[in-house]
């Protein structure tokens, strides 16, 4: 894009930042603010190669960027409180001796003695590898695993080249948690660098790129030793800094060949990354016999064993509810199998004859299977060999990412080489949009395609693509750097951890669809919504720091139905498009509905660990986000959770519900009662079943009655009894109802298949897990009543030992549901009883009085203070995760289920979405590339790209969006984007006549939501004539019994209608009725 000379003025772009539908609080530093805006791609400065109409489009565009707690908004929050060692910072100047004559050359790698001075500017001590900070790396730990994180924390990474691509890679690796990162560049900042290097400002022009970058990068992660250098990189340099991975960016081909040869010979992992305009390249060489410890990034499969045959095949049976998912030739191990105990803790290579069984081989000499057990996939490492760069250049392995452009990788492989040959022959790069240079460039590519080859590299040389490469290759775009930088950084992490399958070996990416649809043709406002110091505020400050010419507005209000007075008709109509970064389907669907209603383009994205997706929604061209729905997550039957768990996930969900049922809901109900007893009784009587009312009343009585705790000792005593109730008595009652040898009416063992026979737990004060439960439960109860808490385990243990627990005797006549069908039938009976008891207002009034009689009198509770718990997984001081971890694992022990560590339980209980900076960076780049397209107003569906990426495999899949489904009424086609536009408030009579004459439709019913505005069959005859003369807006207010808010200018109406001959017309578009 065109750049504005210093001191001149231009139209300013404006970005508005706002909130998600949920609000959280984060702590942010300056570096985090910068990181927040890294992925916006909002810098208006572009290299001359992109001096196209797109620049003008951006200056008159308004975009809403919806940013939330989705995995696409990876936080770079740095926790410095846990650092044990003092941090030393040394500062100094960096020389760049031995450079080429061009002062802006960024790479100098020879075998001569080290030139220049390597200058440290560290942000943490490098004396020892720090322990993994689970608070800082929690989401990444769920992606990488603890072992890989420890390996990453021991890695020393050199990144050479600190233009836009290099700094993006460095940012991602630093956030990832390498031990040390050296940023290297011998060149100085140029004006063109400002287009994609977000840390550079005009004041930095003439300063060393590495030094300027380091000032910002060193703030990103206090656990990473970030240094900079402009020295010559030679053997001594690499040895001194113990470099494990050498990342080379935007170097010339001669330099790439030198570094690639050196790294392969010296067993240094090599990642080579380049961008040329709208084209990107990545190459990986991790040497010979490289071990990949996890080839796909998926958690190992676990299934419930229901039977193992005692025969030569050794057939293992599992539940027939779902396919087991194991593959032929994979390895598994068994846990907890009864009877045939020989299979436990052993690995078996399996054969898969069906989706519900597999075989493990001869089991004739094993014991007879009696029940129980789980089988878990065992991941085996895979060995991979890499060719050196020079060899791969001649005989490349190419990864395809867009199956609509199968030959693109081969074309780009030649084009990147041709770029070097062109510079060598003509002493310059191809000039932007110069036809003569583009023709010369094509000639070079054609020669390279057959040069020193028996067969051409490709038979599908595409001159159009090659010319586009030549005309744009000197450009620089921040989103391209984000895409290639995110992927390259992940490859560097793979190199040191062996976690996930590397790229083998060349990967090429293009975004030629971002060019104007007529590529030969020669501000305002972007709006971002985010919570928390609000994320929107942080992002606004960061963007302003990067580009002072940008106007930006931050909102801290959620975009949801309750804020439609803020994000109203005028607001949305002024937008050119929206960008989502949300973490839940409901919020995305709401934004999607608004975009369809206002006919605005939307780019939605999401990440899950190494997986990412981008969907572009364009009015009239594509389907919307809500047009298709993912299948719902399989739900666990309630009876399984309550009585028959068989997986640790079941006990964790039970523990989470148990927490809410003890420490959140009852306290909230008690609070509500204390605010107004009569109103509380009325709401309870009206809104709940008989069973629920009894439970609510008992909750309030327990929370506020005479049995409430008055001291920590009372809380400890309560917690000890709670242990007995939950892990002994309840299980004893269950076994009383269904003994271990219980047989069903069909003669089958009751405790078989998915039902694990439990056993009671006898409390042992010397068992750490038992005491963990009492410590957490007693402190949680103390918090509710504002009683001082304690972490003194010895004190609690001493008191627990003195508590008398009465012997439990199971009771006859207690109903325990065997399945959800029985439970639903019981609930239906309760509802019928409740309905029969409600015989008019007087009966209801009596019931309210009865409820009040059963509750504490207000004067007795006036001095009680109640403080409910709101579950917060990330606060390690509040006992929430202590309780859920202990409870889940104790229940797992009840049912002989393998226990889990705190980290896994926290992920499941807190519904934490795994996230990593590399995926986030890449997907934001992809999003911004799609934004370029809709801002230019692309009208061809083939110009847009939906994407699905899995960096772990790696897999890259890009395709055209799906067009909207077409429907038809009379002889007219329409899609979800079409509607009837009615402007001006008119009478009902005029409204009906309008549709008769204009659209040949006769309305039979007109409704707004659930309210019927017009239906001739239900209109009162006495007022029909008068109602036909009334305005639609007036009728709306009458039937809804509410005034239309001042900010609402239009109503959404639905219509049932006939054609003029009286035939039913089934489907018609909705009506946008603009009355103001």
What topology does this entry show?
Elements: E1 14-19, H1 30-38, H2 53-59, E2 62-67, H3 134-144, H4 146-152, E3 156-160, H5 164-176, E4 180-184, H6 209-217, E5 225-229, H7 235-240, E6 245-249, H8 253-265, E7 269-276, E8 279-285, E9 290-292, E10 302-308, E11 315-318, E12 331-335, E13 347-349, E14 351-354, E15 357-359, E16 374-378, E17 382-384, H9 389-394, E18 398-399, H10 408-426, H11 435-450, H12 463-472, H13 478-497, E19 506-510, E20 525-529, H14 535-546, E21 551-558, H15 569-573, E22 577-581, H16 585-598, E23 602-608, E24 611-617, H17 638-642, H18 648-675, H19 677-687, H20 690-704, H21 712-737, H22 768-784, H23 793-800, H24 820-837, H25 841-854, H26 880-894, H27 902-909, H28 917-936, E25 946-950, E26 955-959, E27 967-969, E28 972-974, E29 980-983, H29 988-999, E30 1001-1008, E31 1011-1014, H30 1021-1029, H31 1032-1040, E32 1050-1059, E33 1064-1065, E34 1071-1074
Parallel strand pairs: 1-20, 1-21, 2-20, 2-22, 3-4, 3-6, 4-5, 6-7, 18-19, 20-21, 22-23, 29-34
Antiparallel strand pairs: 7-8, 8-19, 9-17, 10-11, 10-16, 11-15, 12-13, 12-16, 14-15, 23-24, 24-25, 25-26, 27-28, 30-31, 30-32, 32-33, 32-34
């Amino acid at each position: 894009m065109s750049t504005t000379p210093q001191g001149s003025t231009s139209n300013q772009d404006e970005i508005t930042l706002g909130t998600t539908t949920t609000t959280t609080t984060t702590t942010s530093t300056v570096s985090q603010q910068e990181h927040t805006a890294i992925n916006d791609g909002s810098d208006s400065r572009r290299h001359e190669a992109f001096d196209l109409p797109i620049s003008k489009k951006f200056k008159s565009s308004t975009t809403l960027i919806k940013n939330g707690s989705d995995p696409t908004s990876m936080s770079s929050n740095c926790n410095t409180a846990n650092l044990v060692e003092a941090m030393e910072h040394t500062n100094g100047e960096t020389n760049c001796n031995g450079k080429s004559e061009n002062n802006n050359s960024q790479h100098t790698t020879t075998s001569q003695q080290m030139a220049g001075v390597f200058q440290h500017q560290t942000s943490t001590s490098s004396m020892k590898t720090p322990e993994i900070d689970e608070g800082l790396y929690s989401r990444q730990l769920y992606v990488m695993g603890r072992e890989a994180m420890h390996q990453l924390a021991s890695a020393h990474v050199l990144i050479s080249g600190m233009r836009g691509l290099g700094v993006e890679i460095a940012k991602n690796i630093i956030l990832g948690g390498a031990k040390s990162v050296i940023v290297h560049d011998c060149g100085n900042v140029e004006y063109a660098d400002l287009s994609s290097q977000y840390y550079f400002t005009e004041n930095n022009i003439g300063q060393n790129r590495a030094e300027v970058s380091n000032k910002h990068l060193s703030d990103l992660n206090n656990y990473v030793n970030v240094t900079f250098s402009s020295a010559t990189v030679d053997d001594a340099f690499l040895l001194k800094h113990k470099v494990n991975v050498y990342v080379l960016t935007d170097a010339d081909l001669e330099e790439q060949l030198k570094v690639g040869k050196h790294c392969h010979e010296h067993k240094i992992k090599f990642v080579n990354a380049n961008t040329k305009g709208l084209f990107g390249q990545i190459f990986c060489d991790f040497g010979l016999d490289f071990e990949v410890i996890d080839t796909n990034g998926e958690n190992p499969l676990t299934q419930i064993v229901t039977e193992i045959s005692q025969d030569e095949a050794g057939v293992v049976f599992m539940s027939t509810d779902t396919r087991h998912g194991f593959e032929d030739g994979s390895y598994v191990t068994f846990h907890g199998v009864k009877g045939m105990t020989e299979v436990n803790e052993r690995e078996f290579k399996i054969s898969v004859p069906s989706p519900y069984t597999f075989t493990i081989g001869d089991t004739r000499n094993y014991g007879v299977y009696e029940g129980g057990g789980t089988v878990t996939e065992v991941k085996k490492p895979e060995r991979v060999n890499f060719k050196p760069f020079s060899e791969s250049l001649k005989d490349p392995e190419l990864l395809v990412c867009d199956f609509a452009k199968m030959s693109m990788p081969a074309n780009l492989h030649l084009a990147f080489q041709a770029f070097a040959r062109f510079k060598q022959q003509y002493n310059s790069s191809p000039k932007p949009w110069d036809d003569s240079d583009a023709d010369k460039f094509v000639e070079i590519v054609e020669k390279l395609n057959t040069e020193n080859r028996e067969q051409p590299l490709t038979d599908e040389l595409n001159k159009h693509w090659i010319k586009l490469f030549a005309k744009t290759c000197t450009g620089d775009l921040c989103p391209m750097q984000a895409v290639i930088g995110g992927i390259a950084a992940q490859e560097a992490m793979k190199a040191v951890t062996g976690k996930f399958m590397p790229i083998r070996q060349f990967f090429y990416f293009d975004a030629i669809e971002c060019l104007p649809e007529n590529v030969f043709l020669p501000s305002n406002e972007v709006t971002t919504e985010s919570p928390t110091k609000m994320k929107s505020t942080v992002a606004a400050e960061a963007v302003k720091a990067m580009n002072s010419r940008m106007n930006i507005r931050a909102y801290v209000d959620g975009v949801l139905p309750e804020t439609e007075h803020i994000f109203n008709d005028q607001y949305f109509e002024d937008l050119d498009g929206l960008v989502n970064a949300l973490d839940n389907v409901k919020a995305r669907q709401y934004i999607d509905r608004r975009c369809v209603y206002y006919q605005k383009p939307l780019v939605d994205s999401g990440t899950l660990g190494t997986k990412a997706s981008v969907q572009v929604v364009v009015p009239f061209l594509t389907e919307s986000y809500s047009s298709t729905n993912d299948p719902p997550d399989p739900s666990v039957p309630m009876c399984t959770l309550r009585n028959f768990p068989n997986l640790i996930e079941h006990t964790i969900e039970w523990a989470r519900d148990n927490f809410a049922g003890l420490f959140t809901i009852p306290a909230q109900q008690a609070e509500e009662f204390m605010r107004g007893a009569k109103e509380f009784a009325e709401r309870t009587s009206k809104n709940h079943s008989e069973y629920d009312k009894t439970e609510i009343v008992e909750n309030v009585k327990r929370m506020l009655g005479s049995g409430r705790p008055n001291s920590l000792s009372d809380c400890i005593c309560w917690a000890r009894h709670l242990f007995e109730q939950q892990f002994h008595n309840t299980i004893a009652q269950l076994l009383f109802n269904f003994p271990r040898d219980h047989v069903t009416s069909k003669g089958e063992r009751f405790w078989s298949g998915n039902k694990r026979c439990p056993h009671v737990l006898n409390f042992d004060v010397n068992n750490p897990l038992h005491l963990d439960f009492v410590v957490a439960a007693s402190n949680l109860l103390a918090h509710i009543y504002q009683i001082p808490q304690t972490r003194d385990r010895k004190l609690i243990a001493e008191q627990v030992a003195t508590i008398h627990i009465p012997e439990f005797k199971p009771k006859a006549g207690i109903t325990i549901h065997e399945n959800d069908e029985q439970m639903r039938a019981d609930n239906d009976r309760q509802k019928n009883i409740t309905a029969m008891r409600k015989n008019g207002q007087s009966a209801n009034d009596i019931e309210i009085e009865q409820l009040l009689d059963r509750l504490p009198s207000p004067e007795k509770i006036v001095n009680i203070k109640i403080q409910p718990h709101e579950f917060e997984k990330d606060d390690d001081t509040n006992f929430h995760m202590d309780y859920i971890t202990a409870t889940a694992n104790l229940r797992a022990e009840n049912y002989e289920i393998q226990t889990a560590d705190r980290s896994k339980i926290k992920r499941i209980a807190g519904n934490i979405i795994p996230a990593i900076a590399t995926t986030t960076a890449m997907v934001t780049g992809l999003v911004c590339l799609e934004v370029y397209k809709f801002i230019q107003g692309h009208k061809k569906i083939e110009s847009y790209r939906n994407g699905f990426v899995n960096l772990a495999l790696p897999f890259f899949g890009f395709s055209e969006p799906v067009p909207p489904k077409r429907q038809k009424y009379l002889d007219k086609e329409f899609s979800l984007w079409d509607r009837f536009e009615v402007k001006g408030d008119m009478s009902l009579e005029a409204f009906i006549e309008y549709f008769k004459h204009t659209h040949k439709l006769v309305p039979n019913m007109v409704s707004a939501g659930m309210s019927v505005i017009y239906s001739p069959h239900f209109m009162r005859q006495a007022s029909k004539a008068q109602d036909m003369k009334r305005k639609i807006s007036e009728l709306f207010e009458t039937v809804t019994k509410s005034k239309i808010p001042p900010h609402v200018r239009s109503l959404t109406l639905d219509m049932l209608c006939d054609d003029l001959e009286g035939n039913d017309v089934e489907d018609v578009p909705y009506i946008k009725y603009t009355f103001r």
